[in-house]
């Protein structure tokens, strides 16, 4: 029973060629492929004639676990070549791996992700031995360039070496046992005819060793009772396949490897250089012919000293970088290490990576059964009566209407055309409770739903997938993140994946703008505290965001430097939001008050910090401190002293703006502070007062009219004058009239002084 | 001849003379014209080759060395740029020693560097007596490098005024240097095979002098990055600091957990990002591996000579203020903020000790 095991690296052109050659030569009875066994009765769907890349998307959901994963295929995938060549050879095709929902795949979103990550230590040793930067370069060096002569033996030796030194994990062991049972059954059934097994190279030694044993066709595990799930074909793209762009994505640079597979290394290298030059020139970056000659010469030179017959991917990239980058780089070249493109990469390098990635997007054959999302969305629209032409006015307090609003928001977020919201809540803070929608059935609806089918099997799952992707791409843009969180609330998406949570935390941790962070925290905190409409009150997701934002705001606040400057309301609001979080959510979210108070105490006392921030920091401390007797041995808050020490005429208004924004109540209820302020303000000379006036106006704006009235009343009382505070405030006439009056006063005073009349008058009174 | 005078730091070709000799012996690959070694052997000299008993001398991506060597073999110069303390000068010395067998044709750039120090000057006594002639000519490194076909090193090129930098233009593009004072064949010095230039520049010096774009075009730029891998950097700091401490007569080896805290602190302040992912302001002071070694040295000295034990986290805080923040108030504030806010969430005795010792920062 001749069984040929081909150990491959997923998405490797060399392995694809080897697979094709082997199947063509052997004309086997069975071709067994690493892939989801529950798809075996639908292999014909895969071979309908799609435009690659496509992927098998599998979704799963039960009481506690939700999982979505992809098995992507492109033209140079050995698995794909095994399917097509196996079919041509008339072989029986079988996928032999466990279904994607099986616990053995928990935590993996790409079936064909590189297994090298699981063998990191030995890979590192190999790279060191060959003096190359990383696994991708090593792979190209060993297998993709050069003759295919003894590729089969070399691959086997490589994978045996890697696998031989380390034990497989529990998950891999379960999968290998299952795959081996298929191999034994197929071998027994084939009799004398050959069987070809195409699996990841790391599984090959284990499968070959398990050839002896009982041979019965294994059963395909059935979905657990309480679970829903399934697999279906979705269009895929090179961008999603590229390791520079995402997690667990397999080999980097699909565009380049496609070219390598189609037309060989020389052509691929030339094409790559052309592409990069073209892209850079389109962006008006100078690329001279001399540069291109230098790039090509360097690439060839590198290939020679690295022992390659033709330049590899890294040779060409190194050559281009040498010739085209004429300044210091901020971050290392992305192909020197694995993983995503890092922010701050040189523009030339970004274009190079984009050229490598390629823009190809797959398309399914029209005869392919539509992904379940299409059916789910259709059923949902019918059920809620949203399928037709309509103008809706939804009351968000009414549960059925709220449900419809959620469905509509999910469709909107998936980019399905024909659902337009004309009015409704735009942020989490204003009390808008109605929404207006215009529904216009659109021919693009079906296409959009098929594309969105790659994100999930139901509207809710797909929406969660889209939001997670947006959270990942938000980068350092806090406003974008706030939009994601609000969209999640609107669409009723409450279970956010761990990965998305990590991304959100990362965005907050890297945010640089206090104002944006404050705006977001204010919205999120309101949603966390109150929102029963959207069901976000006490949501764990928002709790994590609040925690991260509080930490970040305190960190940023201590770093702001600068002398007197007009009050920045954004950063004052950020401190206010941060204080509110500590006040209302500290127990529920285990936020720690003591370090926060230490920080604001330092900011308040820091003469290098801008006055508005110092005022706000002092207000922060004052408003939280009463319950707290001592802050690390320091005396309790002494507002009199603080006001006195901070009252510099030029910046008093800014300092007070910060204070009033955070500790309005405290100021209002502390009579001596008002008295002190009155004393200090009265003591200013006219010139100082004019300078401070705009700041002071802004500061007192923080008091609502009723409280301003109270203050005015107290002032009158202090001066022993009658009348109501309201009268004093209402009496404020046009500033021009006041100015004219002041001028007149000054002239009269001058005249009196000239005539020597002031002294006697004073003596009289 | 008497025995050679002991040198504080002999040049690379002397320090590694036996390794170079071994590589030359085993070198069978084709050599670029004018080179002392083949490209492969030169690469092995720098990244190490266990079989030929050649040590690894530079910690970094091997592809950087490949690109640098290929640049030297083409008609463009090699420009090594990067933060201070990333071993650019060491790399340029090793490259010159490997390619030409000699690393001493060096021009040290500075505000006072003149064309005379780069190209040639005159022996004025002979010049007055004989007039300009090859006898009265005093060649500087560039002229010698061109005439002898060797690698010339230009350190800190951006510290030179722009017009002085531009002296390199025609030697790099036309590979010829004119000496207008001489006549006949001597008036033009054509570069022999093997001549090329390795320049180094600090990215922090960009404010001092820029480079003309004409000169930039004649160089291939290579950025040398700080060590990417934590464990590699930690081992390097431990080895170097231990050696320095031994030379200073300290018998207690530095504590590994204190060094871990030190290296983590340096890396985070250098990159402006904590292990947890918070982004921070970078210090304007140089937080290189070399600085980390010197701080580790100082920490060890303090611990030993003040208390007779290895340095602790308290010593680290004191030394950080002096060595890292220096007299820069802003850096000091950044350092304080780091110790206040970014240390508390970590576990480990030394981190807690570091946090507790934050009051030792001056000011």
From TrEMBL, chain A:
Pfam families: DUF5682
Name of the protein described by the UniProt record: Uncharacterized protein
């Amino acid at each position: 029973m001749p069984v040929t095991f081909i150990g491959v690296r997923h998405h490797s052109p060399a392995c694809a060629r080897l697979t094709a050659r082997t199947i063509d030569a052997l004309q086997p009875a069975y071709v067994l492929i690493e892939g989801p066994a529950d798809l075996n009765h639908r292999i014909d769907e895969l071979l309908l004639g799609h435009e690659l890349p496509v992927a098998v998307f599998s979704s799963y959901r039960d009481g506690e676990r939700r999982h979505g994963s992809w098995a992507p295929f492109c033209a140079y995938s050995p698995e794909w070549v095994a399917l097509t060549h196996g079919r041509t050879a008339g072989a029986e095709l079988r996928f032999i791996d466990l279904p994607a929902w099986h616990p053995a795949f928990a935590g993996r979103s790409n079936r064909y992700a590189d297994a090298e990550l699981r063998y990191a230590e030995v890979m590192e040793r190999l790279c060191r031995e060959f003096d190359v930067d990383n696994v991708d370069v090593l792979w190209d060096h060993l297998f993709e360039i050069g003759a295919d002569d003894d590729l089969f033996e070399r691959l086997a030796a490589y994978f045996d070496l890697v696998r031989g030194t380390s034990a497989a994990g529990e998950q891999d062991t379960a999968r290998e046992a299952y795959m081996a049972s298929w191999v034994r059954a197929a071998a027994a059934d084939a009799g004398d005819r050959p069987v070809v097994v195409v699996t990841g190279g790391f599984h090959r030694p284990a499968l070959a060793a398990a050839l002896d044993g009982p041979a019965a066709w294994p059963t395909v595990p059935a979905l657990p009772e309480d679970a829903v799930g399934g697999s279906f074909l979705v269009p895929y793209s090179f961008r999603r396949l590229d390791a520079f762009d995402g997690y667990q994505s397999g080999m980097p640079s699909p565009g380049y490897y496609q070219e390598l597979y189609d037309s060989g290394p020389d052509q691929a290298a030339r094409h790559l250089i052309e592409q990069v030059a073209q892209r850079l020139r389109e962006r008006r970056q100078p690329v001279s012919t001399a540069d291109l000659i230098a790039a090509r010469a360097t690439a060839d030179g590198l290939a020679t000293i690295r022992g390659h017959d033709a330049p590899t991917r890294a040779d060409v990239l190194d050559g281009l970088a040498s010739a085209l980058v004429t300044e210091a780089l901020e971050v290392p070249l992305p192909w020197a290490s694995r993983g995503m493109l890092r922010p701050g990469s040189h523009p030339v390098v970004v274009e190079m990576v984009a050229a490598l990635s390629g823009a190809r997007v797959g398309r399914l054959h029209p005869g392919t059964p539509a992904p379940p999302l299409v059916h789910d969305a259709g059923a949902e629209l019918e059920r809620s009566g949203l399928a037709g032409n309509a103008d809706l006015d939804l009351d968000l307090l009414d549960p059925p209407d709220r449900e419809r609003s959620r469905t509509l928001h999910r469709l909107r977020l998936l980019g399905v055309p024909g659902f337009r919201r004309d009015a409704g809540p735009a942020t989490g803070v204003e009390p808008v409770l109605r929404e207006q929608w215009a529904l216009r059935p659109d021919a693009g609806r079906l296409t959009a739903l098929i594309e969105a089918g790659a994100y999930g099997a139901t509207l809710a799952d797909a929406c969660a997938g889209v939001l997670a992707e947006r959270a990942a791409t938000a980068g350092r843009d806090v406003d974008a993140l706030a939009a994601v969180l609000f969209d999640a609330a609107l669409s009723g998406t409450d279970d956010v994946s761990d990965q998305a949570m990590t991304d959100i935390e990362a965005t907050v941790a890297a945010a640089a703008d206090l104002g944006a962070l404050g705006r977001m925290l204010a919205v999120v905190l309101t949603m966390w505290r109150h929102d029963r409409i959207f069901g976000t009150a006490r949501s764990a997701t928002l709790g994590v965001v609040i925690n991260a934002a509080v930490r970040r705001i305190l960190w940023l606040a201590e770093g702001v430097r600068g002398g007197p400057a007009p009050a920045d309301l954004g950063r004052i609001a950020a401190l206010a939001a941060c204080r509110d979080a500590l006040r209302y959510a500290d127990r529920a979210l285990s936020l720690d008050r003591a370090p926060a108070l230490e920080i604001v105490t330092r900011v308040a006392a820091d003469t290098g910090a801008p006055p508005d921030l110092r005022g706000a920091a002092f207000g922060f401390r004052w408003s939280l401190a009463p319950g707290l007797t001592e802050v690390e041995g320091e005396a309790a808050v002494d507002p009199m002293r603080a006001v006195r020490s901070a009252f510099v005429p030029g910046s008093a208004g800014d300092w007070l703006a910060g204070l009033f924004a955070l500790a309005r109540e405290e100021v209002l209820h502390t009579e001596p502070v008002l008295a002190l302020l009155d004393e200090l303000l009265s003591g200013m000379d006219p010139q100082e007062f004019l300078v401070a006036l705009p700041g002071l106006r802004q500061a007192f704006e923080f008091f609502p009219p009723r409280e301003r009235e109270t203050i005015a009343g107290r002032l009158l009382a202090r001066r022993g004058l009658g009348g109501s505070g309201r009268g004093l405030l209402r009496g404020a006439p046009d500033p021009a009239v006041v100015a004219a009056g002041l001028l007149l006063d000054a002239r009269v005073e001058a005249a009196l002084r000239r005539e020597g009349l002031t002294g006697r008058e004073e003596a009289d009174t | 001849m008497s025995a050679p005078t002991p040198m504080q730091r002999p040049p690379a070709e002397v320090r590694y003379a036996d390794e170079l000799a071994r590589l030359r012996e085993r070198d069978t690959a084709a050599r670029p014209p004018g080179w002392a070694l083949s490209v492969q052997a030169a690469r092995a000299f720098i990244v190490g080759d266990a079989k030929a008993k050649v040590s690894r001398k530079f910690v970094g991506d091997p592809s950087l060395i490949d690109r640098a060597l290929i640049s030297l073999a083409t008609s463009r110069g090699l420009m090594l740029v990067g933060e201070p303390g990333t071993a650019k000068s060491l790399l340029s010395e090793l490259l010159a020693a490997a390619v030409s067998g000699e690393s001493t044709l060096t021009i040290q750039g500075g505000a006072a560097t003149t064309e005379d120090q780069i190209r040639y000057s005159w022996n004025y006594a002979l010049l007055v007596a004989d007039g300009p002639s090859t006898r009265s000519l005093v060649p500087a490194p560039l002229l010698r490098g061109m005439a002898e076909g060797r690698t010339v090193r230009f350190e800190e090129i951006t510290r030179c005024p722009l017009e002085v930098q531009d002296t390199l233009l025609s030697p790099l593009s036309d590979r010829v240097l004119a000496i207008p004072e001489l006549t006949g064949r001597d008036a033009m010095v054509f570069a022999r095979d093997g001549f090329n230039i390795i320049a180094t520049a600090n990215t922090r010096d960009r404010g001092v002098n820029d480079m003309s774009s004409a000169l930039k075009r004649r160089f291939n730029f290579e950025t040398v990055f700080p060590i990417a891998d934590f464990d590699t950097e930690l081992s390097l700091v431990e080895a170097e600091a231990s050696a320095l401490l031994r030379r200073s007569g300290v018998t207690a080896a530095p504590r590994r957990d204190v060094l871990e805290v030190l290296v983590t602190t340096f890396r985070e302040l250098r990159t402006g990002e904590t292990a947890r992912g918070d982004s921070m302001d970078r210090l304007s002071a140089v937080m290189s591996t070399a600085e980390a070694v010197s701080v580790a040295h100082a920490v060890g000295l303090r611990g030993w000579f003040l208390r007779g034990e290895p340095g602790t986290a308290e010593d680290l805080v004191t030394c950080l203020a002096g060595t890292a923040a220096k007299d820069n108030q802003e850096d000091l504030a950044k350092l304080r903020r780091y110790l206040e806010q970014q240390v508390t969430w970590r576990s480990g005795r030394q981190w807690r000790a570091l946090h507790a010792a934050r009051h030792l920062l001056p000011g």
